[in-house]
Every structure is written in C-alpha cells, then in structure tokens.
Specification:
Keywords: Glycerol metabolism, RNA-binding, Transcription, Transcription regulation. Helices cover 43% and strands 22% of the residues. The chain is an alpha/beta fold. The strands form two sheets. It has an eight-stranded parallel beta barrel, surrounded by eight helices.
C-alpha cells in the first residue's frame, strides 16, 4: 500500500496529545504517533480520522502492548491506523498482510547494521523505509538505490538544512518532532 503524500515533505511525529491537537488544525494529512498507551490508541486514531488525518503508529513505542505479530494483528484489525512503523520484520509482514501501510524502521549504526538491514528489507518488502539517523545523505541515497523502496529520513533532524539535505539525497519525506520545522514546511505546502 502506498501513501499519497501530496507533496507532504514533513511527517510530523508527535509524543504528546497537545501536539496532536495543534496538528488537527494543520494542513498535514499524515501524522506519526510515537509514544502512546494501548488504552488511548483507538480514541487517538478515531479523533485523527474525524479531522481528516491519517495516523502512522509506531508499534515499538506503544506502552502496554508487546511488539510482535499478534500485536500487529490487533492494531490492524481493531485500531485501523493508516499504517504501522516498526523495527521488527514480523510486524511489517503482518501489517502488509492486513493492507495497511508498512514502514520498516532501520537504525543504521554501522556497516554491519546496514548489511543486515538489506537482508531484512528483502524479506519484508515494506512500503517505506524510515532511515535513522536521517542526517546521512549518502546513506539515504544508497539505501534508496539498493532497495528500490521510498525512504523517510528521521532522527537528529534539527534544521531546515537537515531536511533539505535528506530530501536532496532522495528521501520522500522527513519524520520530525521538531515543531518549528512543522510550521516552516506547513507554510510552504
């Protein structure tokens, strides 16, 4: 499944409900939910949907939910977000089986992690890859070219220059919790 980002170059990533409230009034369609509690998920996703927003849930960061294929099945069937982000291949596979957007999060710490990531990507075939840290343009370009999968850049994105470098290297969008960057790019969208 594919996101129709409609030129949405920033994927705002929220940790607090007050940030969601701000974004409900914004022009952004897709929003990443980082930290959450299992008991709040349905209401948050429903609130977003009622306001024309599509939430991408980070399954690894949901308190009260073990991050495995059963949790992914629960999220897909009961919560029904637009998509799920995870570092776990089994979660990505289950998300794809349920027809939701599957985003494989990769922490590229060294060459070994990068090579293991390529093996994982061949197995899971996610819809998108989120590369962390997102401030390494030449690696963003390499992962996109080698995998053929659209890239989101995230982690340590602190400035407009960081965003522009990631996009220039081939990232489809940048995930960030930096509210100043949300505001900057919303004005341009």
């Amino acid at each position: 499944m594919s996101l129709s980002l409609q030129e949405q170059r920033i994927l705002p990533a929220i940790r607090k409900m007050k940030d969601l409230e701000k974004l409900l009034k914004s022009s952004y369609t897709y929003i990443v939910l980082l930290d959450s509690h299992i008991g709040q998920l349905k209401n948050i996703v429903d609130l977003g949907r009622a306001n024309g927003k599509k939430l991408l849930l980070h399954a690894d960061l949901i308190e009260g939910l073990k991050n495995d294929e059963y949790a992914a099945e629960f999220l897909c069937q009961s919560i029904r977000p637009a998509g799920i982000i995870s570092t776990r291949g089994t979660v990505i596979t289950k998300t794809k089986q349920n027809g939701l957007i599957a985003i494989q999060r990769l922490f590229l710490l060294d060459s070994s992690a990068l090579e293991k990531s390529y093996t994982l990507l061949e197995r899971t075939q996610p819809d998108y890859i989120e590369v962390l840290p997102g401030i390494i343009p030449h690696i963003i370009k390499e992962v996109k070219e080698r995998s053929g999968i659209p890239i989101f850049a995230g982690g340590l994105i602190r400035s407009v220059g960081d965003v522009e470098q990631a996009l220039g290297a081939g990232a489809t969008a940048v995930t960030t919790s930096n509210t100043e960057l949300w505001q900057h790019y919303q004005q341009r969208s």
